[in-house]
Amino acid sequence: KNITITANVSDPVTDAEFDSPNTQVFDTVGVNTTKDGEFSVFYSGSQELTLTNVTLTGATDVFTVNASTANLSGGENITVPDGEDVPLETTFTPDTKGTQTATATITGKVDGETITTSTVLIGTGQPPELGGPTQRRIRFGAVETGNNATESIRFRNTGPAGTTLDVTPVAGVS
Fold it and tell me: How many other CB atoms are there within 10 angstroms of residue 9's CB atom?
């Protein structure tokens, strides 16, 4: 007689789903202003996941990932049960005009094996912009020869909210 025995053996790492969004887009942010964001890391698997590290590569001077929101600061690890997600707070503080990117890589361990996931952070810095004057005409009225008249010209900052427009006076004009 033949007896068939079937055994289902699962590898905790290959059965694990460890995922984060492909990208986090900050859109346009004023140069030297900060925009906060957040993305979550999701885990599903037969064994508990221990998050061990978050690293940032690329434009690390303008993006941050606050690992302390996931209790990863100071060498502490966090255990993530099956079906849970862990939020990670992020910031983007552009210092120049243009699009900048960084990659956040999140590392964890399942049953002693290392697994990773990553999210690309994308943001565009926009400096303040000088808009036209708020009035089209400046009327000085009748001014006699040898006298002075003063009127103000107001300009507006048409750049992103929170940006500051520095205006340098024209030489010889008080």
Answer: 4
Which residues, in sequence order, are CB contacts of 6 under 8 Å at separation 6+? none
CB 17, CB 71: distance < 8 Å: no
The angle formed by the CA atoms of residues 111, 114 and 120, to the nearest 5 degrees, is 135
- List, as one string, the DSSP characters of the chain: -----------TTTT-EEE--SEEEEEEEETT--EEEEEEEEEE-SS-EEEEEEEEEESTTTEEEEGGGGT-GGG--EEE-TT-EEEEEEEE---SSEEEEEEEEEEEEETTEEEEEEEEEEEEEE---EEEES-S--------TT--------EEE-S-TT-----PPPTT--
pLDDT at res. 9:
41
Which residues of the chain fall short of a pLDDT of 50? 4-14
Contact (Cβ atoms closer than 8 angstroms) between residue 134 and residue 36: no
Exposure letters 90-123 (e unless 16+ CB within 10 A, then b) = bbbbbeeeeebebbbebbbbbeeeebebebebbb
pLDDT of residue 3: 53
Q: How far apart are CA 102 and CA 57, in angstroms?
A: 5
